[in-house]
TrEMBL record:
GO terms for biological process: carbohydrate metabolic process; cell wall organization. Gene3D superfamilies: Single-stranded right-handed beta-helix, Pectin lyase-like (2.160.20.10). Keywords: Cell wall biogenesis/degradation, Disulfide bond, Glycoprotein, Glycosidase, Hydrolase, Secreted, Signal. It holds the Pfam family Glyco_hydro_28. PANTHER family: PECTIN LYASE SUPERFAMILY PROTEIN-RELATED, PTHR31736. Belongs to the glycosyl hydrolase 28 family. This is Glycoside hydrolase family 28 protein. GO terms for cellular component: extracellular region. Residues 1-21 form the signal peptide. The lineage of its organism: Eukaryota, Fungi, Dikarya, Basidiomycota, Agaricomycotina. GO terms for molecular function: polygalacturonase activity; rhamnogalacturonan alpha-L-rhamnopyranosyl-(1->4)-alpha-D-galactopyranosyluronide lyase activity. The keyword Calcium does not apply. It is found in: Secreted.
Length: 423
C-alpha cells in the first residue's frame, strides 16, 4: 500500500486523457518537487526533534521562509514531535510540506492541528512513508482537534501520510479544485465521529486509501462536482456515503469505483431527510462488501436518525449502481438494497445493473419507496408520483458469490479507549 508514488500526480494528466470523464482536468501540484528546492526546515526556526510543541516552529518556518521564497519545501525531518499549538498556513503557492517526522497531539484544544488554506501548486507528503499524526483520540474523544483541513486550495496533493486516531475527523477537504489524495492509511477508533476523509469541491481525485474506523470512510459533502473516488479499502469502517445532504445540496458528476468494505455500517449510503437541491449523474461501480449492517441505501433511510430539514427533499437523478457483490449481516432486519426516496421528491433514473446484494443469513428483503428506475424488482419504472414502501422477498441473486475475505481484514475495529497502533 505504501508505495511511494511521488510522481503520480504528474501521470494523472495522462490518465485523464484516457477517459476519466468525470474529472475535468489534471489534478495535483503544477510543478514537481524538483522545483521546490529551497528547504525550509523547522530545525532552523526554533524546532527540535523531540520537541514538546512543534506548532510554533512550523508556523515560523512558514512565515519566515516559505512565504518569502517561491519554490520552497517546509521540512519536518524524521523523528518524533509533540504538538500543542495548531497552525493555519495560508496563502502560499508553489510549495511543499514534507512531513517525514511523526507528530503526536498533546493538547485538547479544538479546531484542526494543521489547516492549509488558499494554497496553490502545493504538495503535502512524506518522503519516507513514516510521516503522520497520532491523535490518541481515546484521551479526548470528540472533544479535541481534527488533524488536517485543506481549505479552498487549488492544484494540490496530499499523499503517503499516516493518520492514527484523531479525536475527531481525520482529513477534511473543503472546496477548492484539482486536488489529489492518495496512498493514505487512516486508523480511527471503532466509534462514531471518527470520519476518515470528508471531501467537497470540484475536480478532486481520491485513490488508494485505506480507512479503519466506525464512521465515514470517504464521504462526499456538498457542494461537489467532478470527483473520482477509487481503490478505497474501508476496513471495519462506517462505509462510504454522500451527505448528510442539506438545504441547497449541489452534487454532480461523481464516480466511486473499486470500493471494498469489510464490516462496519454500510457499503454506501446517501444520507438525507428533507433539504433541497440535487444529487445527480453519479456512478458507483465495482463495489465489494462483506458483513456490513446496511448495504446499498439511498436517501431517507436516515429518516429515523436525522431530523427532517426544511425543504421538499434533495432531488436524486441519474444514479447508477453497477457490478456490486456484497452481503449484509441480516438482510431481513436491514434490506441489503433499500431505495427509500422522499415522497415529496421521488428519485428518478436509479439504475442497478449486475447488483448482487445478499444476506449472511441466506434471507433478505429489498425495499423501494418513491424510487423510479430499473434493475431491482421493487423499483417502479417511469417518473410517476410517490408510492409507499414496496417490500419484496428475492431469492439469492444468481450473480452473487460470497465475496472472498481479503488478507488484512479486521475482525473488529480498533479500540476506542486505548492507543491504536501506528501501522
Ligand atoms: C490550477 O491549474 C490549472 C491548470 O491545471 C490552471 O488553469 C489554474 O489557473 C491553476 N490555478 C491557479 C490558482 O493557479
Ligand atoms: C485492516 O486491519 C488489519 C489489522 O490491524 C491490518 O493488518 C490491515 O492492514 C488493515 N487493512 C487495512 C486495509 O487497513
Amino acid at each position: 500500500m505504501f508505495v511511494n508514488l511521488a510522481t503520480l500526480s504528474f501521470v494523472s494528466g495522462l490518465l485523464f486523457a484516457t477517459g476519466r470523464a468525470q474529472l475535468t482536468g489534471s489534478v495535483g501540484p503544477l510543478t514537481p518537487l524538483s522545483s521546490k528546492t529551497k528547504i525550509c526546515s523547522v530545525l532552523d526556526y526554533g524546532g527540535s526533534i523531540g520537541s514538546s510543541d512543534i506548532g510554533p516552529a512550523i508556523l515560523d518556518t512558514f512565515n519566515k521562509c516559505v512565504l518569502v521564497n517561491s519554490g520552497s519545501t517546509l521540512y519536518v525531518p524524521a523523528g518524533n514531535y509533540n504538538m500543542q499549538t495548531w497552525v493555519t498556513l495560508k496563502g502560499a503557492s508553489k510549495w511543499a510540506f514534507r512531513l517525514d517526522g511523526f507528530i503526536t497531539r498533546t493538547s485538547t484544544t479544538g479546531g484542526h492541528m494543521i489547516i492549509i488554506q488558499n494554497a496553490n501548486d502545493f504538495e503535502f507528503y512524506s518522503a519516507n512513508s513514516l510521516g503522520g499524526f497520532q491523535g490518541n483520540g481515546y484521551q479526548c474523544r470528540n472533544a479535541g482537534p481534527r488533524f488536517m483541513r485543506m481549505v479552498t486550495s487549488t492544484n494540490w496533493s496530499v499523499h503517503d501520510i499516516i493518520m492514527v486516531d484523531s479525536p475527531e475527523f481525520h482529513l477534511i477537504v473543503q472546496g477548492g479544485s484539482n486536488g489529489e489524495v492518495y496512498n493514505m492509511v487512516i486508523r480511527g477508533a471503532n466509534i462514531g465521529g471518527s470520519d476518515g476523509i470528508d471531501i467537497s469541491g470540484s475536480n478532486h481525485w481520491v485513490h488508494d486509501v485505506e480507512v479503519t474506523n466506525r464512521d465515514e470512510c470517504v464521504t462526499i459533502k456538498s457542494p461537489a462536482s467532478n470527483m473520482l473516488i477509487e481503490r478505497i479499502w474501508c476496513n471495519q469502517s462506517g462505509g462510504s456515503a454522500f451527505g448528510s445532504l442539506g438545504i441547497d445540496t449541489a452534487i454532480s458528476n461523481i464516480v466511486y469505483k473499486n470500493i471494498y468494505t469489510n464490516g462496519g455500517n454500510q457499503a454506501m449510503m446517501i444520507k438525507s431527510n428533507g433539504g433541497s437541491g440535487y444529487l445527480k449523474d453519479v456512478t458507483m461501480q465495482d463495489f465489494i462488501s462483506r458483513g456490513t449492517a446496511y448495504g446499498l441505501v439511498t436517501l431517507m433511510y436516515t429518516r429515523s436518525s436525522m431530523t427532517r430539514l426544511a425543504g421538499n427533499g434533495v432531488q436524486l437523478s441519474n444514479i447508477k449502481f453497477t457490478n456490486w457483490n456484497g452481503n449484509v449481516v441480516d438482510g431481513v432486519q436491514r434490506a441489503p438494497i433499500a431505495l427509500i426516496c422522499d415522497d415529496l421528491t421521488p428519485c428518478t433514473g436509479i439504475t442497478l445493473s449486475n447488483v448482487n446484494m445478499w444476506s449472511q443469513t441466506g434471507k433478505a428483503v429489498y425495499k423501494c419507496e418513491s424510487a423510479f428506475g430499473s434493475g431491482v424488482s421493487c423499483i417502479k419504472s417511469g417518473t410517476a408520483s410517490s408510492y409507499a414502501v414496496v417490500t419484496v422477498t428475492p431469492t439469492q441473486p444468481s450473480g452473487y458469490t460470497t465475496p472472498t475475505t481479503m488478507a488484512g481484514d479486521l475482525a473488529s475495529g480498533f479500540p476506542s479507549t486505548a492507543t491504536i497502533p501506528v501501522p
